[in-house]
Amino acid sequence: MNLNFPKKTGVALGAIAFLLGACGDINNSWEVKGGGYIKYKMGDEDSHTIELAREDVHVPNINRHYIQIQTRIEESKRGDQISIMVNEPQIGKALTPVGRANLNGRFQYVTWMREQFSPEAPLVPDNSTIKFDERSDSLWSADLDLYFKDCRSGSCSDSLPPLHLTGRLRYWVAEDDR
After folding, report:
1. Any residues with CB less than 8 A from the CB of 93 and at least 6 apart, and which?
2. Is 123 among the domain residues?
3. Is residue 169 part of a domain?
């Protein structure tokens, strides 16, 4: 049996095989399984990215009126961790994140940041905003402009200027959560 294909057929078969291989992970994408990232800068530093898994984000639903995001410290090369909560998220409005909340009868900081394995630095609510520009059943996107107390010395200091985080949040809601 002679299987000599013309060159064009061989190229076409190779291209098809390549495309099938490239599309093999399409069902593992953030758009399908959920996830995303926070890309941010601290002051004038270079930008950093922390990936978000499905379990890192809780979007509003029939029983919940807030969005809550908490990155995992092991996802950051620098040892950064970010926790953000926003009540009643709306499109196009500069919203102030919730700094403290009564959770299970105790006040806890719910928006905070750890920079390079430092203690949790609470939000400085003055001028801290999150502005959502995309919100659907499948995608949430927002610009971050947040200030946190400086806790890098091992304890938080009111005498030091706050740390300024600017960045972008993108999160795709898993198909099962829509």
Report:
1. 131, 132
2. yes
3. yes
Q: Which domain holds residue 138?
A: 32-177
Structure tokens at 141: 């996107």
Calculated CA dihedral for residues 168, 133, 63, 126, nearest 10 degrees: 60
Beta bridge partners of 30: none
Number of domains observed in the structure of the chain: 1
Reported as a single tens digit per residue, the pLDDT across 136-165 is: 989 999 999 999 999 999 999 999 999 999
| Residue numbers of the chain with a pLDDT score lower than 50 | none
Kindly report the pTM of this predicted structure: 0.81
9 belongs to a structural domain = no
Q: Are strands 66-70 and 121-122 parallel, antiparallel or unpaired?
A: unpaired
Rounded CA gap, 79 and 72, in Å? 9
* CB distance 128 to 97 below 8 Å: yes
Q: Is residue 16 part of a domain?
A: no
Eight-state DSSP code of residue 1: -
Residue 84 CB coordination number (10 Å)? 24
Residue 100: φ, ψ to 5°: -130, 150
Cα(104)–Cα(69) distance, integer angstroms: 19
**Which residues 6+ apart lie within 8 Å of 14 measured at CB?**
none
Q: What is the amino acid identity at position 176?
A: D
